[in-house]
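For the sake of transparency, this paper describes our internal protein records without simplification. Such a record has a labelled line for the sequence and another for the backbone structure tokens. Nothing more is needed to write down the fold, since each code stands for a local backbone conformation. For reference, a complete record is included directly beneath this paragraph.
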Amino acid sequence: MASPFAPKCLCLDIETAATDALALHKFGAWRPDNRQSVCISGQQMLTALAEIDALTEGASFVVGHNVIRHDLPALAVLYPGLMLNALPAVDTLELSPLAFPENPYHSLVKDYKLVRDARNDPLKDAQLSFRLWSDQREAFVALQESSPEELACHHFFLSRQQQRGVGSFFAHLRGAMPPKPEEVRALLPTLVAGKACPQQLNKVLDEALADEETGRAFSYVLAWLRVSGGNSVLPTWIRLQYPATSQMIGQLRDTPCADPACPYCGQYLDPLKELERYFNYPAFRPEPANRAGGSLQEDIVRAGYAGQSLLAILPTGGGKSICYQLPALSRHWRNGSLTIIVSPLQSLMKDQVDNLIKVGIYSSATLNGMLTMPERRDVLDKVRLGDVGILLVSPEQFRNRAFIEAIRFRQIGAWVFDEAHCLSKWGNDFRPDYLYVSRFIRERYARSNEALAAISCFTATAKREVVDDIQAHFAESLGIELSILDGGHERENLDYEVIPVTRSEKNALIHRLLEKEFGNARTVGREGGAVVFAARRKSAEEISGFLKDMGWACAHFHAGLDAGLKKDIQHAFIVGDLKVIVATNAFGMGVDKPDVRIVIHAEIPGSLENYLQEAGRAGRDQQDSRCVLLYDEEDVEAQFSLSARSRLSRQDIAGILRALRRYSARTKSTEIVVTPGEILADDAIDTSIEADNPDADTKVRTAISWLERARFLERNENHIRVFPGSLKVPSLEDAEKRLAKNNLSEDIRRQYLNLISLLINARDDEGISTDELMLVLGVSGQEVIRLLHQLEQMGILSNDLSLTVLLRRGVADASSERFKRLAELESALLSLLPELAPNADDGEWQDINLRGLCQELKTRSGLELIPDQLLKLLHSLARSFGEDDKSRRAMFDVRLLRREILKVRLLRGWSNIREIAEKRRAVAAVLVNTLLGRLDERVRGVDLRVECKLGELVAALKADFAVGPQLKDEPTAIDAGLLYLHDNGVLILDRGKSVFRSAMTIQIYPEEKGRSFAAADFEPLKEHYNEKNFQIHVIHEYAKLGLKKFSEALNFVLAYFTLSKIEFIRRYFAGRKEILERATTEESYRRIVDSLRHPLQQKLVAEKPDTNRLILAGPGSGKTRVIVHRIAYLVRVLREAPASILVLAFNRGAAWEIRQRLRHLIGSEAGFVTVLTYHALALRLTGSSLAGLAEQGDEAQAKAALEGILENATALLQGTEELAAEGDGDALRERLLAGYRHILVDEYQDIDQRQYALIGALAGRQTQDREARLTLLAVGDDDQNIYSFRDTSNDFIHRFQTDYQAKVDYLVENYRSSRHIIEAANTVIAANRERMKVDHPIRINHARQNEAAGGRWQKLDALAQGRVHIIAVPADPVGQAAVAMAEMQRLKALSPDSDWSDFAILARNRATLEPLRAWCHRENVGYRLNESDARGGPKFYQTREASWLLDLLRGKPGRCLRPGSLSRWFHGRFGSLSQENPYLAQLGLFIDELDGIWGDVAIPASLAIDELYEFSADVALNEKCRLTLSTVHGAKGREFRHVLILDGGDWKRPSADERRLYYVGMTRAQETLTLCESSAASNPFSPGLSGTAILRRQLPQPLPDCSGLTRRYRTLTMSDVVLGFAGRKPAKDPLHACLDRLDHGQPLQLLAVGTSWELRLPDQNLVVGRLSGKCAFPAGTHLEAWVECIIRRHHHQSKPEYADQDKLDHWYVVLPTLSWMETD
């Protein structure tokens, strides 16, 4: 048996400070021959020198790792007298690459360091170095046997310098002295035959033999050549220490010689032979051709071989991949370099790797977000070891530390940008992360002496601006010039066509096209497949469903499908199991099937580039194929809309910047760690990005990229670190002993040992990031935390993961109070949700009315609550909680639709959810108490910082007797508990969040604090968005040309890619350039702007959206039209999100009109615009439900709540409400208004102080942050302020310009009235002072200027001739009524085409109208008495007709109403009855309005109930063919052909208020205006009218018939009747059936019975009601009574003293109208 290897040497190692090699901490030395050792600290060195010399005595040389450059030089300086300084040295670091050239080099070596098994133990490291040297010796012995010539060469090159130790070592191994130079020259050609160019070898050898340092470098090259060919790379330290190594490898293997017969260059540097070697292709593709007719593909490959930087443009299917794959494979084989390919599509990356594997190439890999952690670890390991030569990565990887570390020491052969148009803002798929890559490259090379590797860019579609932009980008960022190799965009084998189609025809046409291509769907004969592209997921699913029904083997494909399903569909299509794929563009670049015979675009794509890219999926096998575009103009508009939805606004980015700065200020740190979700969850975030949207994460990261580009911040990956100081064991051996006690499986034991080894080998001052632990161990972040926790429990380490939270204590709304409130709300919520969604256990989506839920929670819990807080609570509840994979499943999904509908889908049962929530609350309580306990008791304030270790929180949970025993995995519980508390504002979790989640580390630049994200910063992104609009217009134009003459369309495409943009526009859009700047079609623009009737209207509609504006609009000037078209312009032309627009209308009728007009103009998008009254908005902001208030309390309580709702909403927005304690006013306001950008206010002159305050709070009038203010457009007219009795004031409109720094415009052309009417109205209003339009009187619109001043009535009426007709009337109301109606009858007779609905009789007071009502009664003329003039009547929701609907809705609380279902119910049940019953008509109106608001959205029944109650608060009815009798106040906002204004002695004061009221009445008239002047006390306004526009008539004699006009009417209110009358009758009493059948207008008898009055049915003698004792009758003769309305009364509404008499839960009550003849 051979004796052990134990030479007389001194093995040593020293530990020094990381930053100071002369700061000696420890010294260790060991003699393998006698096993003696020393290990002393740096402080003991001076007293131990003799001991070290004694150990050195007899040693022949020194052995150590990196001793020549580190240990020995340090000891020579510090202790020059040591004997070991005189000994020869053998350095294991320098020998390793020679002994182990193949990576992984050796188990004891990583990079240039030893892999240790103990911390801070130089003696063990000295012993390790000897162990390594022993293995090196064995390797050299083996080399002596296999290749003694190579060992001889190493002996020569390494022994020429003063390396006595190495020389002796090699002499001992070889048993010979070093060879002579000429011997080495003779040996080397044979050693490197076939691995290097012989000609270049001679040149390299000349220098290596002459220069000792170069020769030493050559020795490493020689060792590497032994294993070269793609499976090993030079150690990084060699390339850094000996840069000549890389140069020599390049010369030997990469540089072609001049010898055509060279065996190496002729084989390995010839791209044509390499093409055959790797891909078995005999030649490059002939198409596209270069200018000389040769292969452009070959030109590109040869440029790649030559290391040239280039931009190559090749058509889809033009062989682009080989252009960069072949040079990359060759480089990897020749020099081991790595080619990094940046690609935007994960599926495309995988396809490339799979295709290379098919041809036997295994040196490629992909790195993207789809990989599992073990897969990612495997790829990065292969990258580090050199096994990967082609690495395809997504651009976001360049911010990932693990990726950066993996490539840090690899030699990069080339940087390839696939889909390079993503670099250009002019490209169709611009991605900011692509721009970061060049910054990364620049910074990488700035830190090294390496030469910049070649940059190769590839794209299939690049117009001239894109090419120029890409070239400029690399010239600016990297200082290089890209050569252009342009293969164009054309494919000869593709036949393009455009077919016009309507939406209804589309599916059938696709089916016919497929049949034409493949034959019958079920018996297809032709091979190949088809791809149908759709722009929207919904379209893809619908078309796919239709084709399946037609028998096609078909599936849909879009980004919303699970990754596994997408993979299965792709595979089935490629192998032919599926004939047809219907896909969005998520499929366009991701699948390479060679025999796609037809590509159909069912909807127009977003650009010509996308179209060619997607159509290019066809015919990749070079066989003839078809590409069909189906053209429907509506699809173009849809593309504009889709493009807009993917965009960020400047306000979005500015809002994210403000959120990040707030976060930084709160944590008092410029470095913050945050996730995109947390940014969107920020209390005060002001952005249109909806957190629930699939693209929310991408949008936030994009916004941060732009902020980084504008130098506001810098983004890095998180690096929360675990430090080796946490280890409680000195070595791996000790750790193994402790692990052995725990009875672990071998796999788990090995996992623990790997983690411990990582910590042992980490630097003390750097530690190791949790990201690195995840990567190396191949586990998730949660699993890393669990492993660390379990090692802590075993006593192997202390869990020093640090957490920092911010708390509130000793202040209002402290953290403890917040938690108490949170617990109460959560308990109430979890008891309520199962009631509202009882069927949720089936896993289907349940729709819940958000406001109704909020109101019910407030009622049950007694706590104030707003919808925002409720949503936070729901989202936090939805998170998973548990110790194993099953229990970590989320509890439910939550989404919010249109700010009103809460969608919930259960992933567990309700009981399970409640159990888990209680457990999480218990954990959270322990955490809150523990963290608060760490604060000094004397400290009070907000955002109080508390730092603690994760281990301390674990200990607190274990110590809790109630919680501790329930938990198996405390770190997971802490994760869930802290996030729960953070989400709900109990605390702010700062440092340590990324331990639990993938987060970004962002450095905020404090020097930019005063700068906001301005228009200039946004300009590059704006240019990109404008370019996207341009691209949609281009594909639209292509389609239209293709319909006319396809050769013109082909020329159009050629011009697009070859001409400059200016030349292209000049040729194809001459005279139409302006349309290219709009995000809508020409047709849509004409409807929105060009159709307006005046240039000023057009100007106002098309103004930029960043200016506050007041439009002073006279009566009849089209102000509502301007508002509607302005909204349409924002949505359709500027592509502002419809949900970002808030419109405030004075009443519900005005809101309804705006909605209706808007829907007609922009279709379904109108449904996303918020159009509300002030009270309706306030209800939504505060989370209040009128239905909930009315049903849970009495009517007075509901009325009081409604009265105070505006103040409550304003207080919330201003931050003065109690709920605002969660943040300052601005923060809460931004949270409540998240997503709103524009406010449009109608009738601004009619607002009161409360509405003024609400508008100011909404717009942010007082906020200091200008970026947080909303743009405000108000329309009003101070001349039409007529509600001073409601405390409205013109002061507010007068202050608007100052309040909002607004521009003022005047809209004074009247489109309503004749010139005579306008002149008279101007005369009346001119007498008022301080008018805003004093210099801008209303005038007839331009188009009617040449019409007769009296309009058509100038000829039609020989008497008045269209003039304003002032008639004298008797002083008594009856006589006035007779005269007035005689005049109206005269006018009606002159216009046979008119009916009574064209006429309106207006009065100052309602009482003046009574004789007119009697006249209608006498003449049997239908009339409409304005409901808004009535007082004290029931609300509509209290009526019997409304109760029918309410019963239907309440019958199924969880019911969801499908679009149109209520309309079908109404018409099916009531048919034409609604024409006779005004309350049924109101019900029909409500249902129509509900359908108009929600369109095709299904809504919860409870939301419909809420809408009904709001409708009841502000309802108006316009009945056809009925004469309007109204006060002037009631007629505001309406217009009539014929208007008559009564003079009943009530126009007494000539005040400004009264004058405005009279003016408003006059301006309701379109064609004729008649003014009454009382013969006794005339109104103060009409007497001043004179001139040609006026006709005065004396009191007619005799007076018209006045008989019957003294009749008076009174509709009784609820206080006038006995409300409980029917409720005290048993259920079977015939009264109830009778009340069910009673109808509006049905006659009643009023009979006195004793001291009371009864209501009877005349024909049945049945008492249907009784009048109360409070009901008093005016004097007169009672003539008749009839049913006015029937209301429903409930038992709970009865007064306590009467409630015990009720026999029913609810019943009907008749409210009659009484009519009598007045007596003198």
